[in-house]
Amino acid sequence: MSEDTATPFPTLQYCLRCCLPETSEGLEFDELGICKACRSSEMKMHIDWVAREVELRKLLDHAREEAGTNYDCLVPISGGKDSCFQLHVLCKVYGIKPLTTTFSHTWWTETGWWNLQNCLQQFDVDHVMFTPNRKLVNNLARQSLPQIGDSCWHCHAGVGAWPLQTARMFKIPLIIWGESAAEFGSKATYEDQIEFDEEYYLKVSTKVHPDKMVSDQVSRRDLRPFQLPTREELQAEGVHGIHLGDYLFWDGERQVDFIKREYGWREDHVEGTYKRYKSVECRMAGVHDYAKWVKRGFGRATDHVSVDVRNGLMSREEGLALAKQIDAERPGELDYYLGITGYTEEEFLEILESQRRGVAASLPKVPRPKTVKA
């Protein structure tokens, strides 16, 4: 166990280089106490990115040749920072003609909706959006908490399934995402990637197959938008996916500065972090990350300071102090989540605390809100 008293929970082991605790899913420490994410960051520095870019160019040239009169590729977008930068790279740098698609989580912020519409206009791209009905989203948001330990199963599942369905409908083989799964390094590294297949998002974030979400309130028919095509169906259409971040050196800070300057992309306050760009499109991001803090003892601020520490933008001590201050803050949007799901705050906390596993079980209970006497 760590003897570092600066860490938020001294009973947990923390990476000796960044700020990630051992409760981060998929995280491993080497014999020096350095985490998998930091090792991935080292790998990134030794990659021949010139050679990777050549691979990307060949791949895009092939996609363009195969497309004929069809779209060259499919680009899932949310209007977030990666969406805007992806479209800049594909449309402005490589001259690709994509079809863009969005699975609407229905929890848009005003800034996020503006960014999405601005992207569509700036890059003159065609766009297909699917929006699930409000009642279904509310029911799934309630079931999501006990099933996967956060509020967002419908979003995780939708952004995984809908692009695959769209690719089949429009017969577009190539799907292009932005940031590599190795960028944060706890689930994958630049030398040990997660293979793209029909269950990619099921492995990365969804966790629970749609069949497990059938209930008295949600029918199998309701879950049609979240169903994944089979491997055979995808292979028949030749559907495959890549992340630009596996071919181009990814630097979120510089990319945000660039899209703000060139395309007017907007930042805003985001609950649960000091960054003003990550998940700015979703009003529920803070609830998702607060749930992670309750369950695992760290939230998105820890993720972000860890990246900044690896990149030399702050010291580990500064990062730990900042994360300790922000991660535990109760998000204001929790009131909205409780309202649409019918949970009390006590129930919300109890469900998440009951899902603590391994060393996370040693974490103290979250202080309950004080009740006000009538």
Task: Quote the average pLDDT.
Answer: 93
Q: What ranges have pLDDT less than 50 throughout 5 or more consecutive residues?
A: none
The helix/strand series, from N terminus to C terminus, equals HHEHEHEHHEHHEHHHHHH
How many angstroms does the end-to-end distance come to? 46 Å
How is the biggest beta sheet arranged?
A: 3 strands, parallel
What would you say the CATH architecture of the largest domain is?
A: 3-Layer(aba) Sandwich
What proportion of the residues is helical, as a percent range? 40-55%
Overall spatial form: globular
What would you say this structure looks like, in words?
The chain is mainly α and 374 residues long. The chain folds into two domains: 49-246, Rossmann fold, CATH 3.40.50; 269-358, no CATH class. Helices cover 44% and strands 6% of the residues. It contains 14 helices and five strands. It has a three-stranded parallel beta sheet with strand order 1-2-3. The protein has a two-stranded parallel ribbon with strand order 4-5. Helix 3 crosses helix 9 (252-263), helix 6 runs antiparallel to helix 7 (200-206) and helix 11 (300-310) packs antiparallel against helix 12. The longest helix has 19 residues, at 49-67. The protein is globular. The N and C termini lie far apart (46 Å). The mean pLDDT is 93.
